[in-house]
Design goal:
The chain has 150 residues and is an all-alpha fold. It is built from six helices and no strands.
Length: 150
Amino acid sequence: MLRMFFAALAGGLFGAGLLVSGMVDTVKVQGWLDVFGAWDPTLAFVMGGAIIPMAIAWRVAARRKLSGLGTPIPSPSVQKLDPNLIAGSILFGAGWGLVGLCPGPALAASTINGLSGVIFILAMLAAMITLPALRRAFASTGKTAWTSAR
């Protein structure tokens, strides 16, 4: 029960941070990404406000065996570049640049951006549902980088 409370608290803080920072405002996000046009550098403070505390938290966690709730802290996974990571990064970046939303802010924005936010969420869910079938289809041909997909 305590774990669910802290998960809800963290999710609430994350959502509040998205709202306060302007990350749910697609115009602001697209302004951040438009470095050769009307660039809006204010989201750099949001990134700094996220990266700095997380860098400290990772240092602290690296020295501990158990979390504050008593559960084991898993060891870091092996980091490797594979076709799935590269393709996912490209799709994520393209979607973020075109629409001005990524999954977390999209959920928050769906409540305030009306129909456009809901359409984005539905399109994202459709892609998530469709992807496994596409991976199987590409893997069966044996001609693409998707063969390493699970």
